[in-house]
Amino acid sequence: MSLQLIPVSESFSVSTQVTAADIPTLVEAGVKSLICNRPDGEANDQPTITEIRTAAEGAGLKIAYVPIVSGKFTPADVADFSSALSQMEAPVHAFCRTGTRSITLWSLHQRAQGVADDELLERAKACGYDLTDALGSAPVVESRADETIKAKDYYDVLIVGAGAAGISVASSLMSRTQALSIAIIDPAEVHYYQPGWTMVGGGIFRQADTVKTMASLIPEGVRWIKAAVGNFEPDNNRVLLEDSHPIHYDRLIVAPGIKLDWHGIDGLVETLGRNGVTSNYRYDLAPYTWELVSSLQEGKALFTQPPMPIKCAGAPQKALYLSGDHWRRRGVLNNIDISFFNAGPVLFGVKEYVPALMEYIERYQATLNFGHRLTRIDGESKTAWFATQDDNGDTVEVSSDFDMIHVCPPQTAPDFVRQSPLADDAGWIDVDQNTLQHKRYANIWSLGDAMNAPNAKTAAAARMQAPIVANNLLHDMDRVSGVAHYNGYGSCPLTVERGKIVLAEFGYGGKLLPSFPRWLLNGQRPTRLAWILKEQILPPIYWKAMLKGKEWMVNPERSKADA
């Protein structure tokens, strides 16, 4: 989809996310300067500001980085935007995820210059943006349940996030009742099957097969609010969008996913996608992983894993196994030095699966480096540095050169979650690990990667959690009997070679929770059946069952007692 520039004035325009490929379009349109208002790491297909800056400056454009967390417009933000704008050669083009933050900042800047709110609201409306709430004007309202709210912006159930968890729980609710008004908030145009990216990086899946349009997946009967969340106001039972517009609810489900902190490793964003630096954790980079693997004939290959928690903790080593298998089949494995740098103390957190994995570590002659956290990288010199401890327990830095490096970035809850009343001290949504109900707000539930239950952050976990949250929300409304309990189930199909997988399935405390009898599929050993499950069965189950409210192989425990 080509970039659409929305003219706000003769010298200023806004748009959705700009990519490096869009720079020629901007130059052709006469743009001289850019302002980026979107923080890095908000989405898994989002290019970093460094990538955009490199392309922009190469084309002669000036660019400023004024990142704004959705919905949080402080006087300092407006001052920073105004300062950047004053130093730019016009015409200036600003962008964020949807363009809302950019036009809001421009409007607040214009207000400070004395432009009347009515004029600014009318101009924003002509551009397709409603800034009524952002500029502080009182909306037309009507009363409901002793609150003054817009009737069209009230829902029985509001869901934040349309990833695997959000769409699955929406479908689970719709499969149980058609009597509720339900809305889901997410600005993304597309939805990704992220478990497939490791297979893309291994030359097995096509990149295009891991993505569908969001519009094709939102459940029928659920309203899609195509916007970004700015803030939570749980005491007022409402969510603020990035333009400060309030959406009210009786019950809230929060499933916004996880943030990839590319800036958590110094120098990484400057070299991602080139100089042999790649990551299967980003949609557009997974094909580069395969390009590197398939072309490497000799040299040093590094694979890294940051401190927990991360999504799919097996993914960093899956990249190692599929790469090592390809090099072994090509007959070049003896020419390649493979090293795995893991910030943690063990290869895998559930000990029963380690013996099978170690057989493949030995097969691929990989060196294991535990307690090594990637801290910085220089792509030009092809050098990576790691923090570790010496024999005295002191933190020291060691380095390694490389010909290719697969990086798993550090990960956190999204900014708007970490800064909200819903977060625990570490920034994750604070839930009861059994019922997934918020510990302080009884009408809020959470599932997926952003909540703090101590389970593996995988799509399989979300598949199990969705019907539990749907059940427990409806139990809270006295529409079903029995509280469903989550046992921490998660699954990690460890692709140890092309054609075989170690199917790790476990719950809280590392308890093994196999879905199949041992005689059919022994998850502690590599099997062809597990590979067939991963390659041929799980993708259609994801698209056609999990996201459609068909809860196959999900049978959570229930109790009659209230949660």
What does this structure look like?
InterPro entries: BLH_phosphatase-like, FAD/NAD-bd_sf, FAD/NAD-binding_dom, Prot-tyrosine_phosphatase-like, Sulphide_quinone_reductase. Its cofactor is FAD. One of its GO terms (molecular function) is sulfide:quinone oxidoreductase activity. The protein contains 13 helices and 30 strands. The strands form 9 sheets. Strands 8, 9, 12, 13, 14, 15 and 26 form a 7-stranded mixed β-sheet that branches. It has a 5-stranded mixed β-sheet with strand order 1-2-5-3-4, sandwiched between helices. Helix 6 links the parallel strand 8 and strand 9. Helix 4 packs antiparallel against helix 5. About 2% of the residues have low confidence.
Helix and strand arrangement:
Layout: E1 6-9, E2 12-15, H1 23-28, E3 33-36, H2 49-58, E4 62-65, H3 75-86, E5 92-95, H4 100-112, H5 117-126, E6 142-144, E7 147-149, E8 154-160, H6 164-176, E9 182-185, E10 190-192, H7 197-201, E11 211-213, E12 222-225, E13 229-233, E14 238-241, E15 246-254, E16 259-260, E17 277-278, H8 286-295, E18 299-305, H9 315-330, E19 336-342, H10 354-363, E20 367-370, E21 373-378, E22 383-389, E23 395-401, E24 404-406, E25 411-412, H11 415-418, E26 444-446, H12 459-476, E27 483-485, E28 490-497, E29 500-506, H13 528-544, E30 557-559
Parallel strand pairs: 2-5, 3-4, 3-5, 8-9, 8-15, 9-12, 15-26, 17-24, 18-19, 18-24, 19-20
Antiparallel strand pairs: 1-2, 6-7, 10-11, 13-14, 14-15, 16-25, 21-22, 22-23, 27-30, 28-29
Helix pairs in contact: 3-4, 4-5, 6-12
